[in-house]
Design brief:
It comes from Roseomonas gilardii. Keywords: DNA-binding, Transcription, Transcription regulation. Residues 250-281 are annotated as: Disordered. This protein is mainly α. The chain has 2 domains: 13-77, Arc Repressor Mutant, subunit A (Orthogonal Bundle), CATH 1.10.10; 88-255, GntR ligand-binding domain-like (Four Helix Bundle (Hemerythrin (Met), subunit A), Up-down Bundle). 64% of the residues lie in helices and 3% in strands. It has 11 helices and 2 strands. The protein is globular, with a radius of gyration of 25 Å. The protein starts with 7 loop residues before the first helix and ends in a 25-residue tail after the last helix.
Amino acid sequence: MDQAATSPADGERLASQLATALRKRIVAGDFGVGDRLPAERALAGEFGVSRSSVREAIQMLASQGLLSSRQGGGTFVRALPDAHGESWGRQAIVEPLEQLFRDNPDYRYDVLELRLSLEGAAAAHAARRATAEDRERLRERFEATLQDGDDATPAVLARVDAAFHLAIAEASHNLVLQQVIRGMFDLLAASTSQSLEKLYLVPRVPEALAEQHRLLMQAVLDGDPDGARAASDAHIDFVRLTLKAIDEDEARLARSNPPRSPLPHPHRPGRSGGADRKTDP
């Protein structure tokens, strides 16, 4: 790729060409959902362009919903484009329902019901169809869910949790399942209650999730469709019941600590009307 850009227009064309090249690599499967892109310096060297062109190309793909960047944390694949470069899952699933989620986050339970139906099927297909590359990616995504230390915030753990499940959807080799499941995770992330992050704040739940992920991964690696479906169903049912328990605890706490009305100012008239009356001694 020629980096001899001599004008802003040339620079924009170069960034657009790089964005197209990166999009093609994502479509080809070089990067899956949740995967981190190489550093800007590495991409600039690979394509023979400046780092500013790389940044502009990444911004283009981020504006299309395909990539997301975190300050100091790198750039990650957020959604899979189709062969024409469109993020079908976001356009068809997420965008029409985002406002609904903002108005009523409880619709996330509808999403969990759908996950229960679809992810079991995806896990069964993955157990039948996973390639050696799929299995390696699944192992890597599972190991990422076990991270600890200062970087293991609930938000980060929620992201790698989603990436693990999306690796199973990718291994199903069913593009529709893959995109629908990606859309469901985008919807959960759009929920104002941040459903996935809540799970990692509850004591002992992260350990339970890790064991459930391990059993699910092992069933896929063993080529056991029935076991993979059962492990997926058990995991999502656990997530649903745990979130309901969290919501019930929060509602109970809110009921037991209602907001207090402000006390009237001692020098102001009472609500019954009229100024304070003076009486003769």
